[in-house]
Amino acid sequence: MKIVDIRATTVTMPLEAPLRHSNGAHWGRFVRTVVEVEADNGLIGLGEMGGGGQSAEAAVTGLKPYLVGHDPARTEALRWMLANPTASLYNNRTQLLAAIEFACLDLQGRELGVPVHALLGGKVRSHVPFASYLFFRHPNDDGTGEIRTAEQLVAHARELVDQHGFSVHKLKGGVFPPDYERECFRALAEAFPGHRVRFDPNGAFSVEEAIRFARGIEDLDNDYLEDPTWGLNGMRRVRENTPIPLATNTVVVNFEQLAANVRDPAVDVILLDTTFWGGIRPCIKAAGVCETFQLGVAVHSSGELGIQLATMLHLGAVVPNLSFAADAHYHHLRDDIIAGGKLPYADGAIAVPDAPGLGVELDRDKLAEYAELFRELGPYPYDRDPARPDWYPLLPNSDWADPS
């Protein structure tokens, strides 16, 4: 095969309600860019990346001179062509590389008639378990969907348990004062005896606040405490003062940081993200390092639609040391751009696709519908809260939203 063309389409996907986080909010929708890489045999490989608009589409199509004529099976060469570490100081192409890698792996699988997991060593599990991934939420325009109180949080979690079978629950914090969020988190854990929990304030706490918060939840069935503060040194100080394992998807996102964490441990569990790390293959390599040094491995979510979810499933299928349920925003989506609609959960897990390539197909009508919605609504500022237009966060943060 040889690559003959590359296309990018930015879409907006509506959410059940606006999701709040320590940096601002998802304003009731995700913005994603769908990438299509076409080969000379007529096959099309699919990729996906976060963000979008004219700049993302231009960045993707700007890679056409690099890619036309390239064999999509030479994915290692792609890494150096597109994201050489010194060149990337200037072009910052890691997430672009990831979207292209997804599409090239998809092309290889389609050409050979095998699923991507077969190209990556073969699956060791056929279903990937997921956590419920809960957020505090703004209400929709009609007043529905709000999650602000412990009672609303528990009720929403119970709906997800009944609908999808989750037995692990992750709460995204860093929005309200830490004492308030700790009580909400405790209410969540106590409402589901026998389930496991995890908390993530996105690094918003000071080291001292993070230690205090950890000591207030140490009696719960915690998987881990994720990014309670910012930076490897801050995480190391927290780790020295709590028995709860610490996890990150922010301060160990490349091999240099992984090596630093091995030499001077600050984090116990690495959340691998197929976009942040530059593709599925780098995540598998990182999982191998974690296996060698007995670090925990989980799968991070960066707001995926069905294409990137498929990459997460193939990663989860082949990594033997995936010792925690994966994260996914997926159940917050109202729809998807893949044929057949959203992939279903069963008993808190999603089946790994076995069709050729990534195992998902584009629904062209849905792609057009949500591309038009993006053109209508445009992007939104991820690092702003629509309820607090003049606010922006500090690290550590101390200006919390008012839960009343």
Characteristics:
TIM Barrel; seven-stranded parallel beta sheet; three-stranded antiparallel beta sheet; 14 helices; Enolase-like, domain 1; globular; single chain; 404 residues; 36% helix; EC 4.2.1.40; alpha/beta
Instruction: Tally the structural domains.
Output: 2
Oligomeric form of this entry? single chain
The helix-and-strand class reads alpha/beta
Poorly predicted ranges: none
Radius of gyration: 20 Å
Distance between the termini: 59 Å
What does the model show?
The protein has helices at about 55-60, 65, 75-85, 90, 95-110, 115-120, 150-165, 180-190, 205-215, 230-240, 255-265, 280-295, 305-320, 365-375, and strands at about 5-15, 20, 25, 30-40, 45-50, 125-130, 135, 170, 195-200, 220-225, 245-250, 270, 295-300, 350. It is of the alpha/beta class and about 400 residues long. The chain has two domains: about 5-115 and about 365-375, 2-Layer Sandwich (Enolase-like, domain 1), CATH 3.30.390.10; about 120-350, Alpha-Beta Barrel (TIM Barrel), CATH 3.20.20.120. The strands form four sheets. It has a seven-stranded parallel beta sheet with strand order 7-8-9-10-11-12-13, with helices on one face. The protein has a three-stranded antiparallel beta sheet with strand order 1-4-5. β10, α10 and β11 (about 245-250) form a beta-alpha-beta unit. The longest helix is centred in the first third of the chain and has 19 residues, at about 95-110. The protein is globular and about 60 Å long. It is an enzyme of class 4 (lyase). Its EC number is 4.2.1.40. This is glucarate dehydratase. InterPro entries: DgoD-like, Enolase-like_C_sf, Enolase-like_N, Enolase_C-like, Mandel_Rmase/mucon_lact_enz_CS, Mandelate_racemase_C, Mandelate_racemase_N_dom.
